[in-house]
Amino acid sequence: MSAADMHEDNTRKAQEERLRAAWMAPRGWRYFTAVNNTRVGLWYIVTAFTFMLFAGVLALLMRVQLAVPNNSFLSADFFNQTFTLHGTVMMFLFAVPIFEAVAITVLPQMLGARDLPFPRLSAFGYWSFALGGVFVCGSIFFGAAPDTGWFMYPPLATDPEYSGIGADIWLLGLSFIEVASIAAAVELIVGFLKCRPPGMRINLTPLYGWYVLVVAGMILFAFPPLIAGDILFELERMFDWPFFDPERGGDPLLWQHLFWIFGHPEVYIIFLPAIALLAMIVPTFAQHPIVGYSWIVLAAVGTGFLSFGLWVHHMFTTGLPSISLGFFSAASEAVAIPTGVQIFVFLATLLAGRVVFSVPMLFAAGALAIFVIGGLTGVMVALAPFDWQAHDTYFVVAHLHYTLIGGMLFPTFAGLYYFYPVMRGRMLSARLGKTGFWLMFVGFNVAFFPMHIAGLRGMPRRVFTYPDEIGFNVLNLVSTIGAFVFASGVLVVIWAIARPKRNEPYAGRNPWNAGTLEWLIEMPGEDWGVRSVPIIESRYPLWDQKNLMRDVDAGRFYLADAAEGRRETLVTSVLDGDPVQCLRLPGPAYVTILAAFSLGGVFIFLTYHWWIAALVSGAICAVCILYWLWTGTAEIPEKREKNVGLGLTLPLYVSGPRSVGWWAMFITMVGDGTALASLIFGYFFYWTVHRGFIAAAAGPGAFWPIVGIALFAATWGAMLGALAANTRGSASGQRLLLILSLLMAVLGSLAGLAGPWTHAMTPSSHAYPAIVWTLVIWVAVHGAVGAVMQGYCLARSLAGRLTRDHDIDLRNVVLYWHFMLVSAVLTFVVVGLFPLAL
Amino acid sequence: MRLVPKEIESLWTLFTAPAVWAAHFLLCYVGAAVYCAKRSSWGFGFEWVRVGIGVATLLALTMILVSAWLAWRQWGFGAQDPPHDRPTGHDRRSFQGLATLLLSGLSFVAVIYTAMPALVIAECNP
Amino acid sequence: MKAQSVAAYLLPVGCLVAGCSDAQSVLNPHGAEAESIALLFWITAIGGALIWLAVVGALIYAGRRHRKPYSQASAARLVLWAGAVVPSILLAVLLGYALALIPDLRPLAASADDDRLHIEVIGEQFWWRVIYHPPDGQPVVSANEVRLPVGERVTFSLKSTDVIHSFWIPPLGGKMDMIPGRTNTFSLKATKAGIFRSPCTEFCGPSHALMAFTAVAMKPGRFDRWLANEGKEAVNGKPGLKPFLANGCGACHAIRGTEADGAVGPDLTHLASRKTLAAGSLPNTEDAIARFIAEPDEVKPGVRMPAFGMLPQDEIDAIAAYLARLE
Fold it and tell me: Hey, which of A352, A608, C45, C301 has its CA 20 to 30 A from A535?
């Protein structure tokens, strides 16, 4: 070895030491403070799977009960808790979180990024999910689980006598988990758009990324309506505000609308990420690039949009006008088109290549065979007349399991088998995988196919038993046998994953000969992800770019070093992947866990009406979040710029639309705006269906809402002034305007509340005052949060952490106030001026 | 001078056609739902709702066609076949053009589907 | 995998051989709506089966080792035609067909002055209140059984007093929800006589599974005679009436022609002429009536009726004997 080589070798070793030190996940008793995506993702996956197994056991209990007619293995009451929890856990604690889990684990790897842009937010989301999930699942051990079905229709679910505390556990536990989902959505959208490697233009991104973008976008528009619904629901349960009580101007159908505006997109939120895994697996096992990349983008985006026009197909029997049924029937048929496109893209890719039938491909093929049946029965039930017969029968139970198990569980198992080497550095047993697959595939069809027939023979869903001699006996017994075969297959696969593998060798690099960047990872992987961030010139760089792996390993690309001992990743432009910033990421922290647990405390204590405890917990949470923001974000770097390698110098601090934080604020506020829009939808829903709705109570008048608009407009103007003053370099002007705007924000919030207050509107008397109060409280709370943000900026300015050149905080808060102004004007126009127009 | 610049450098143009579908869908649904819920308080019959849906449909289809034409132009009128996977700005724009064109096609079909109920359903039953 | 699905398709055949009942089956149509939906089902099911075979066939073919890979161009054509164009057309045709069914299946609801039979059904946890409104005549109150004449379109108005239930007579047609605060109206036309089991199809509480009614489609003449009888008062003076009244049963149940005029629970005036007891959960026998009086909560968890097991057995038996003769 020459001296030069030796020198190079030593340099490389030193770089690796520094990188390793910077990215090392904590060990020992601090293990759980880690925020690395590889760790958080792994916990997420394990937790989600644990919940899945739990819900699977519940399903087996139900199958035992239904094996024979007039069975008394489970009581009616326990059976009702069982099916409610089964649906709830599978949907909210497995299907959606497993998307977040897998995406957090593999997306950065696929993008050659070191981590996602907000690692602590991922960790926060994980802890929220874990705590909320344990809370919801645990309820069944105390006989207190929700028992009204996973869609919680009022008035059954609002009846405190019938549903007890279970409904509160459902509402508050899941609201908490929804917060985690939205956090993940923000993280993943910004991750996909801004954290791609240099050169990875939008036409070269892995298809998985497109799906993540679409699904995260859908979460942003689908979850807020449910949160809005949860708020109304909980207000009715806690304070008797009659949103769903027809005797006091409410309407049970409003919940169904809000729930399904969430619920149907949610099905695609579950389905698309799983199809995304197939879009990665199929090209690898066909050893051929995907045929029809643009078609997949079409399908993902098209499905994302169309899925919001389907919700009423869950309400075809509620007595809506035929024409409404027609619209939703039409959209429900239309969504089959992009779904079919994806299946044919996979078929075409397989036909264009040569197929290697490994375990992941086996699961993928099984997924398609099953899912196509679910898709076709979906086309059937989307036809309103057929749905009048099939609705709420076992036909629908069969249909939804064919779509979700074929469209989600099998692809997820395919993905786990496929990505396991990326996560743990080893291959899983092919023998166990094949055994597990065939048991699952056969068991699944034996269990669920007969349910189509049971449904057509008239068996309603959600029955804890059925009479003899109406033709259900054989079908149900067969289903039960199939369910146990299916469960045994799941156990075989779980065993393949969970059994100790200490003595087995690590896999070779890129064991499936895949083309995408996640396979750059060493076996076993290092905490840093990629050794250096490469320049990308192809959709399948490992197939097309010669010596890519060698050059990446040799640190010949960007960020090969961590000279300052900091965690860093690249931020690039949306369309062309041009590097724009070297982003410093925060490391391990307790504060995220504490924030998640104290927020969980708020929700849990509210369930039991422990108001003081909830308040204290909320205060702790607020302090945690402020501390987290203060110490972990918008940090002023020691130097302006940094050489990231290959002669490229990038800024360390950018603000406004170029910064990831600004995007996160933007995306969060879009979701927040959707929740407000859902509440306003509620207002107009009542107005539409109930004659004389607005005349039901006096108030809130036009005066106070107009004052509110004026004050919030002034607040907004003062914020713009503060930003302008700061940009001019006038710290005192900026501070003065911040104080002024803070005062006006508080006054604006109070003015909003003054409308219904001065008219003595009693929310428990009628749905009209209740929805007016809800809207103005929504605005007031947002005004108060905005005021806290203004105070935070003031404090940052006084502490020298917000200056003319370092204004991330101020710009993000101004962005918040853009949204806030729109929210306030909209709300006050609706509650104050709309009644005058009638 | 062009009415619409040849290249709008943005990811969001991709979503034009499906956004038109969404607006059209919402308009049809809300219009019919409000009409039928308050059917006794209008001075006109349900056939005018159907006419309104027809007009909205034509409008939406026109907008989608415009979006499709712009996308087609961005795609270079099909001068090059996919996969558009070279690391150049040209291929990136062609990809965007093709994807937008395909989405316009899907949206076009979906808008027609949405309008179909108005052809056969002539009253606010039940 | 093919064998699996074929076996599953054969199951209903096995069921037919074993001779199981079709009283609740969608595919045993006895009404105009059910007939046209069953046809829609068979068209889509057979079409779907063919599509599934084609897709899985292509998948299996793609997995074969010895075959020539498709060129990029022909693979792309497959996506365009088989993935997009053909499905769009097929779905449009199917959607048009299904939409065109709607105006016939769900014609405009009956207005007040038409001469159809009108049946009001009110869902309550966990039974059905049924009120017949003949076009010319007095309303007739009954419970847990819906009878209708063959060949006539009958209008239903559906309501609920507590939670959401759903009304469904599978062999006659689709279902319609019963929602508190709303009245849903639709109509059904039976084309053949028959007796059907009609379950509640919206989850409504602990005994949701035990909430059903019997639907009977009868020849018009027989229906008219039945309705005339149903409108009559009960035959009076049986020994069981006394304990019935003495124990307060009449506070909740009505037996027309006696002092019992409660409106909380089901009307019992012609209980014995019904096919089943307790909303389809027991056979209508004297023993079953006695059991239900003694332990209704054992039969139907969450039922509103209090248990009368503390009464002397002979009183229970006397009441049961009385009720079992109210034809």
Answer: A352
Half-sphere exposure at residue C112, Cβ-oriented, CA atoms within 13 angstroms: 0
- What pTM was computed for the model? 0.95
Phi-psi region of A548 (alpha: psi -120 to 50; beta: other; left: phi over 0): alpha
Domain's final residue, options C175, C197, C230: C230
Task: Look up the CATH number of the domain holding residue A818.
Answer: 1.20.120.80
- Distance in Å, alpha carbon of C323 to nearest chain A alpha carbon: 24
* Helical H segments across C126-232, by residue range: 220-230
pLDDT at residue C17, as a whole number: 38
Residue closest to B82 by CA, chosen among C243, A289, A124, C139:
A289
- Our count of domains for chain C comes to 3
The answer to whether position C113 is within a domain reads no
Domain range spanning residue C302?
Answer: 241-323
Same domain assignment for residues C206 and C123:
yes
- What stretches of A461-611 adopt beta strand conformation (E)? 567-572, 579-585
Q: C112 in a domain, yes or no?
A: no
Q: Does A692 touch chain B (CB under 8 A)?
A: no
**Residues from chain C contacting residue A388 (CB–CB below 8 Å):** 33, 37, 173-176
Question: Could you tell me the CATH number of the domain that includes residue A464?
Answer: 1.20.210.10
Question: Which residues on C lie below 8 Å from A156 (Cβ)?
Answer: 163-164, 203-205
Range of the domain at B92: 15-120
CB nearest C106 (choices: B82, B109, B125): B125
Cα–Cα distance for residue pair A182/A160, rounded to 1 Å: 30
The answer to whether A796 contacts chain B (CB < 8 Å) is no
Subunit partners of chain A (3 or more CB pairs within 8 A): B, C
- Give yes or no: residues C100 and C136 share one domain: no
Q: What's the pLDDT score for residue B7?
A: 57
The pLDDT value given to residue A525: 87
Q: Are A291 and A348 in contact (CB under 8 A)?
A: yes
Q: Using the beta-carbon criterion (under 8 Å), do A344 and C82 form an inter-chain contact?
A: yes
Q: Which domain holds residue A480?
A: 316-502
DSSP letter assigned to residue C177: E
Which residue among A502, A519, A548 closes a domain?
A: A502
Does a structural domain hold residue B7?
Answer: no
A327:B110 CB<8 A: no
Total domains in the fold of chain A: 2
Question: How far apart are the C-alpha atoms of C71 and C69, rounded to whole Å?
Answer: 6
Within a domain: residue A348? yes
The answer to whether residue A373 is domain-embedded is yes
Question: Nearest-CA residue of chain B relative to C89?
Answer: B109
pLDDT above 90 (res A558): yes
Q: Is residue B126 part of a domain?
A: no
Judged against a pLDDT cut of 50, whether residue C15 lies above it is answered with: no
Tens digits of per-residue pLDDT, A282-318?
999 999 999 999 999 999 999 999 999 999 999 999 9
Return residues 260-319 of A near B (CB < 8 Å).
289, 292-295, 297-298, 301-302, 304-306, 308-309, 319
pLDDT digits (tens, 9 = 90+) for C90-126: 999 999 999 999 998 888 654 545 678 999 999 999 9
Whether residue C261 is found in the same domain as residue C297: yes
pLDDT digits (tens, 9 = 90+) for A716-725: 999 999 999 9
Which CATH number fits the domain that encloses residue C278?
Answer: 2.60.40.420
- Using the predicted structure, report yes or no on whether residue A541 has a pLDDT greater than 50: yes
Residue ending a domain, choose from C230, C254, C289: C230
Peptide bond into B126 cis (omega under 30): yes
End-to-end Cα separation, chain A, in angstroms: 89
**Averaged pLDDT, C261-278:** 93
Full DSSP string of A485-510: HHHHHHHHHHHHHHS--TTSPPPPSS
Report, as an integer, the average pLDDT of A689-713: 93
State the Cα–Cα distance between residues C283 and C301, nearest whole angstrom: 18
User: Does pLDDT of A331 surpass 60?
Assistant: yes
CA end-to-end span of chain B, whole Å?
Answer: 54
